[in-house]
């Protein structure tokens, strides 16, 4: 049975099998959590990302973790929030679903997710957290490989939201 938990932390510090990156379509780095992951992983991560040909919104691609404690980085591209009538909720759920699919294919047991799309992409934070938790629960309801999912919150508001949703 998979264990779901929330912590307030810098995702780059976590010693898990895979961390998820809230990347952009280019996969060539950016600000926020993406920038932090590239800085911590080192230039080899960007070199591998250059070979991937970008990533569609709602999809995911896997790389090595290089200098990170995590063995893998799963890069997924969340939707930009345009008011809620542009398929944003389904695309965000797809990010979680596709990331977990890659994790399972790679034999990963522990995965840490950031709060995808809730930074410069402006997805409403509470709705994003609800989608994150419900999608992960749904995908892993019959899974006996993945043991631990950590929702990594940067701010204390997000952390409180996840704690309540996971109670
Ligand atoms: P997006 O473009 O998908 O909105 P951002 O990186 O702007 O991505 O923000 C996504 C979330 O990641 C935000 O909640 C932000 O506070 C958080 N974040 C930023 N840096 C880190 C980090 N080092 N570790 C964990 N979360 C982070």
Automatic annotation (TrEMBL):
Q: Which CDD domains match?
A: Macro_OAADPr_deacetylase
Entries under SUPFAM superfamilies matching the protein: Macro domain-like
Tell me the domain of life: Bacteria
Which residue ranges does the record assign to the Macro domain?
1-167
**Pfam families attached to this UniProt entry:** Macro
Output the Gene Ontology terms for molecular function: deacetylase activity
Q: Which InterPro entries match?
A: Macro_dom, Macro_dom-like
- According to UniProt, the name of this protein is Putative ADP-ribose binding protein
The organism named in the record is Photobacterium marinum
